[in-house]
Design brief:
By secondary structure, the chain is of the alpha/beta class. It contains eight helices and five strands, in the order H-E-E-H-H-H-E-H-E-H-H-E-H.
């Protein structure tokens, strides 16, 4: 992030930490992870949900978005996606989070408040400015909770829909592949929904990965 974005992010973190509805859910001791930026021309944005992981002891180690400064299964998964798109993770990707502060628990484990929605009203304007600096680069979103947060209107909130899911997919019957159009999401940009790394082990996503990567490659402007 540029200095001005960093300053704004820290100010927003303080606002979120002071919000009466959010304060008890925010882990205000941890700093905002830095975005990951490849060394070459940025051709793809990878958007994560927020930096919170289940084990509190691991959160302090997260200094870069999606832990992309470290080896691990998530980095391998994202590198595989990039390779399928003809890109290199280390060169062509910018990765950031929809909500940048840590929570005391992963948002899906907080049942009495939609903390993503409550915090996003603080973070979304900054995220839009952050992405605007990259031009009209396509975005891939990670995970269904993030997709639900991004979608507006009547667009599907199910990742599998965009991958052509039908009840008879095991028999080889698939629907059309889709992108989330700018009119249907909070970012006003083209978004390609992907499952988060644990869900990609499911048989449906394993079956459809190559097809969806080919769809993204021919649909998105990745030159």
């Amino acid at each position: 992030m540029s200095h001005s974005i960093e300053d704004r992010a820290e100010a927003i973190r303080q606002q979120v930490s002071a919000d009466p509805a959010l304060a008890r859910y925010v882990d205000s001791k941890l700093c905002i992870p830095q975005p990951f930026r490849g060394s070459g021309p940025i051709k793809l944005v990878i958007l994560g949900q927020d930096p919170t992981v289940k084990r509190a002891s691991e959160r302090v180690k997260i200094t870069t978005v999606l832990n992309l400064h470290r080896r691990g299964s998530l980095r391998r998964y994202l590198a595989r996606i990039c390779a399928g798109l003809g890109l290199e993770l280390a060169r062509h990707v910018y990765a950031t989070n929809y909500v940048k502060n840590f929570f005391v628990r992963p948002p899906t484990q907080i049942g009495d408040l939609d903390v993503l929605a409550a915090a996003a009203r603080y973070w979304l304007p900054l995220l839009k400015d952050e992405l605007a600096r990259l031009g009209r680069v396509p975005v891939i979103s990670l995970g269904q909770p993030l997709l639900r947060a991004l979608v507006i209107g009547d667009a599907s909130r199910l990742v599998r829909y965009y991958w052509g899911y039908t009840p008879r997919w095991r028999s080889g019957e698939f629907g059309e592949l889709h992108q989330l159009t700018p009119e249907d999401n909070q970012l006003s940009r083209v978004v390609f929904p992907f499952p988060h790394q644990p869900s990609v082990r499911k048989a449906f996503y394993r079956e459809r990965m190559s097809e969806y990567l080919a769809f993204v490659r021919r649909t998105a402007d990745l030159k």
